[in-house]
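User: Could you check the structure of this?
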Amino acid sequence: MGTGRWRDVPLRARLVVSAAVLVFAYGGVVHVLQLLVPGLRPQLALPGWLAVYFASLTLWDPLAALLLAARRPAGLALGCVVLVTDAAANGYANYVLDPTGGVTPGRIRQAVITALAVALVAFTPWLARWFSPTR
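Assistant: Sure, the predicted structure tokens are below.
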């Protein structure tokens, strides 16, 4: 991302955006695999709305990655919405629907997604100056 449309963006901002692009690309792959590979599907019985939401991430995660890589302001907004709602959905699945007590792999994943959501939301005002539509 150091050439072309990213040429005038500081290295730190390029690194943050690159990390976000990788997170969304990884998330897209995970959600596709969860749909296609029966052993990777969530073990909990999910309500229909939640299953549809998680399935929709097969579209939203890659779209956020592409928009961020293309330096589109919509990428920042979509990225924040996806991560915040993903953290909330995983929180619901892992704390409301899962009767297991204590620390579980799902709760650890939910904590990581929450941390990523907080980080992107926190970085967005700083990153937005390099995502203006006039650039």
